[in-house]
C-alpha cells in the first residue's frame, strides 16, 4: 500500500515528545499502551527510536515497556495479544499482556450488551494502571492522534460541552484519583496523583501514522469494530473522518441526530475541523498558563486545603474565559470529590459556574450582604476581611452592615464544604467518610512483614502516612489485645476538616496521637516560582484552637495540586 502523506520525521517527533513532559522529571521507565493497531504501533516505534538514539541525552527515560490489554470481548482477542507480543519483540521492546479479570477484584461481569465502550474503557485504564505498577512506570504514553482529538471534541460538543471541554485531550495530564477504577479504597485513589498520561501524537493525523508504519515496515492489526458506524457515535465520527467527511447512511443518522451547542460546520471537511479543534486546544493551553500565573502570584497563605485571594486581585481579571477557568481550578483544589473528576468541578455546569463568577467578581460582598455559599463541587466560598497575610471572618449582623478597618481589604476563602452532622448521617444510615477506623489496616500491614509505610487517603484531600516500623510498642500491644477494644481512628479536626490520628479505648477519653498537617512542596510546581517562594507557600498561617500533637512515625500531607496538571 502506498501513502501520499509523509511519515513523521525524527525532528517532528522530538518536538512533540518534549511538549508532553510532566511537571516532574522524566522517570526511568515509560510504559506505552499497545493495542496492536497502527497508532500505538507507530508510537511504540517512534518512542523507542527516539530514546535509543539519544542515550547521551540526560534526563530522558531509559526503559520502554509495551503494555497490551486483553479485554476478552472478542474471539480474536488472544490473536491480537499474540500479534502485539511479536511486534514488540521485533522492535526489541519489553512487552507485557495484562488481562481484564472480569467479575474479580472489583471488576464487573463480562459485558455482553449495553454501554460496552464505556465499561471496556474503565477496565482498560484500571489494568493499565496495574501494569504500570508491575513494571514500575509512572508515565503512560497513548497513541491518540489528531483524528482522535477531533472525535473527542465533536463528541463533547454534541453532549453540550463548552469551549474548554471541546478543546479535547491534553498532551499531558495527571492520572488523578479513581480514574478507571471500579469501587473505592484502592491504591489508584492516591498513587494516581504521582502518575501521568501523555499523548505525543495529538497534532499528527492518522494518515501520517499509517505512512510511518509503511515507511518502517511495521506490522499492525486493525480492530474492525472501530469502523462499524452503526455501533457507537464515536465509530460514526471515526467513519466520517476516515472517509474525509463522506458519510454512509448509518454514520449520517447518528451524527445528525446529535445536537451541537457550539457553532461548528461539518460540511467544511476534515481539515477545517482539525484546524478548529487545534485552535481550541491552543486557546485552552494559553488560558491554563495564565491561570497558573494568576493563582501563584495572587494567593495569600491560608490553612492547608483552602485558597484565599483578595477581591482586588480578582477584579483585575476581565476575560470571562479566564474567570471561569480560575473558578474551576480552585474548585478542583478545595473539593473533597476525587481530584480530576467532574464532580470536583460542579460537573462543569454553566449555572453553577456563573453563580460563583457573579459573586466573586461582583461588588463588596459585605455591602451586598452576600453570605457564605456553596454552588456545588463540595466547596464553600466565604467572604473574609484580609490584613497582610492574615484573615478574619466577619459577622454581618442582622442589618448586614460591616465596617472594615482602614488597613483591611475584602476577599474570598474557598474551603471544603461542611458535611452533614455525624448524628444526621447516623440517623440516615450513612457512613461518615470523615470518621475512619484504620485499626485493621494497621494490623494487616504489620502482619504482612512489608516494611514500607502504610498510606491512607483521607477525604480525597490528605495522605496519611504511617511508618509502622517505628510504631510505639505499647500502642501496637493495645490494638492487638482483644480485651481492651483499643482502636486507631482518623477523625476530623478544626473547621477545615483536617485529619487527626486518635487512639480510642472503651471507657476512656480519646488520645490524640497526631494532629499536624502541611502542604508539601512537590504539589506547588508552578514553573516561575523560586525556591524561597515555594517555602513561603508551605508555611501556613493558622492559629489552632489546641496545640498540635506531632508523632514522628506519622505524617499528614494535603495532596491536591493547584497547578494545571
UniProtKB/TrEMBL annotation:
Record EC number: 6.3.4.19
InterPro entries xrefs: Rossmann-like_a/b/a_fold, TilS/TtcA_N, tRNA_Ile_lys_synt, tRNA_Ile_lys_synt_N
Alphabetical list of Pfam families matching this protein: ATP_bind_3
GO terms, biological process: tRNA processing
Limits of the tRNA(Ile)-lysidine/2-thiocytidine synthase N-terminal domain: 30-239
Gene Ontology MF annotations: ATP binding; tRNA(Ile)-lysidine synthase activity
Entry keywords, A to Z: ATP-binding, Ligase, Nucleotide-binding, tRNA processing
Catalytic activity: cytidine(34) in tRNA(Ile2) + L-lysine + ATP = lysidine(34) in tRNA(Ile2) + AMP + diphosphate + H(+)
Enzyme class at the top of the EC tree: ligase
Record HAMAP family: tRNA_Ile_lys_synt (MF_01161)
Entries under PANTHER family matching the protein: TRNA(ILE)-LYSIDINE SYNTHASE-RELATED
Protein name: tRNA(Ile)-lysidine synthetase
Amino acid at each position: 500500500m502506498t501513502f501520499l502523506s509523509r511519515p513523521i520525521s525524527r525532528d517532528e517527533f522530538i518536538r512533540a515528545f518534549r511538549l508532553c513532559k510532566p511537571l516532574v522529571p522524566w522517570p526511568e521507565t515509560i510504559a506505552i499502551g499497545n493495542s496492536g493497531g497502527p497508532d500505538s504501533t507507530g508510537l511504540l516505534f517512534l518512542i523507542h527510536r527516539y530514546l535509543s538514539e539519544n542515550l547521551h541525552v540526560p534526563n530522558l527515560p531509559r526503559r520502554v515497556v509495551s503494555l497490551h490489554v486483553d479485554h476478552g470481548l472478542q474471539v480474536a482477542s488472544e490473536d491480537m495479544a499474540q500479534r502485539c507480543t511479536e511486534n514488540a519483540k521485533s522492535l526489541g521492546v519489553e512487552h507485557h499482556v495484562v488481562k481484564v479479570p472480569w467479575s474479580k477484584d472489583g471488576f464487573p461481569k463480562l459485558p455482553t450488551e449495553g454501554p460496552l465502550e464505556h465499561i471496556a474503557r474503565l477496565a482498560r485504564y484500571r489494568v493499565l494502571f496495574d501494569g504500570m505498577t508491575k513494571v514500575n512506570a509512572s508515565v503512560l504514553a497513548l497513541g491518540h492522534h489528531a483524528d482522535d482529538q477531533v472525535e473527542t471534541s465533536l463528541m463533547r460538543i454534541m453532549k453540550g460541552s463548552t469551549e474548554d471541554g471541546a478543546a479535547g485531550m491534553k498532551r499531558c495530564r495527571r492520572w488523578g484519583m479513581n480514574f478507571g477504577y471500579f469501587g473505592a479504597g484502592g491504591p489508584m485513589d492516591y498513587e494516581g496523583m504521582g502518575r501521568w498520561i501523555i499523548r505525543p501524537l495529538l497534532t499528527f493525523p492518522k494518515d501520517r501514522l499509517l505512512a510511518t508504519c509503511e515507511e518502517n515496515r511495521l506490522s499492525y492489526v486493525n480492530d474492525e469494530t472501530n469502523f462499524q458506524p452503526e455501533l457507537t457515535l464515536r465509530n460514526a465520527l471515526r467513519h466520517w473522518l476516515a472517509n474525509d467527511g463522506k458519510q454512509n447512511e448509518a454514520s449520517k443518522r447518528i451524527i445528525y441526530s446529535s445536537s451541537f451547542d457550539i457553532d461548528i460546520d461539518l460540511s467544511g471537511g476534515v481539515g477545517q475541523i482539525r484546524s478548529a479543534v487545534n485552535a481550541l486546544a491552543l486557546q485552552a493551553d494559553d488560558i491554563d498558563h495564565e491561570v497558573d500565573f494568576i493563582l501563584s502570584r495572587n494567593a495569600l497563605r491560608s490553612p492547608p486545603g483552602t485558597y484565599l485571594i483578595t477581591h482586588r486581585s480578582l477584579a483585575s481579571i476581565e476575560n470571562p474565559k479566564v474567570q471561569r477557568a480560575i473558578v474551576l481550578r480552585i474548585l478542583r483544589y478545595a473539593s473533597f470529590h476525587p481530584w480530576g473528576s467532574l464532580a470536583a468541578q460542579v460537573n462543569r455546569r454553566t449555572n453553577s459556574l456563573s453563580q460563583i463568577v457573579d459573586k466573586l467578581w461582583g461588588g463588596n460582598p459585605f455591602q451586598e450582604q452576600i453570605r457564605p455559599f456553596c454552588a456545588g463541587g463540595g466547596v464553600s466560598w466565604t467572604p473574609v476581611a484580609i490584613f497582610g497575610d492574615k484573615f478574619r471572618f466577619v459577622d454581618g449582623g442582622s442589618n448586614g452592615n460591616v465596617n472594615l478597618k482602614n488597613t483591611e481589604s475584602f476577599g474570598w476563602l474557598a474551603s471544603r464544604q461542611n458535611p452533614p452532622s455525624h448524628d444526621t448521617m447516623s440517623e440516615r444510615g450513612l457512613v461518615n467518610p470523615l470518621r475512619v477506623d484504620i485499626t485493621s489496616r494497621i494490623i494487616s500491614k504489620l502482619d504482612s512483614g512489608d516494611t514500607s509505610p502504610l498510606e491512607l487517603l483521607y477525604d480525597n484531600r490528605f495522605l496519611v502516612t504511617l511508618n509502622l516500623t517505628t510504631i510505639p510498642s505499647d500502642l501496637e500491644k493495645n490494638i492487638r489485645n482483644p480485651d481492651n477494644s483499643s482502636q486507631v481512628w482518623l477523625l476530623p479536626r478544626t473547621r477545615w476538616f483536617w485529619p487527626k490520628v486518635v487512639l480510642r479505648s472503651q471507657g476512656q477519653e480519646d488520645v490524640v496521637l497526631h494532629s499536624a498537617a502541611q502542604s508539601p512542596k512537590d504539589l506547588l510546581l508552578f514553573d516561575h516560582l523560586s525556591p524561597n517562594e515555594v517555602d513561603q507557600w508551605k508555611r501556613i498561617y493558622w492559629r489552632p484552637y489546641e496545640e498540635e500533637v506531632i508523632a514522628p512515625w506519622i505524617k499528614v500531607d494535603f495532596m491536591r495540586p493547584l497547578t494545571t496538571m
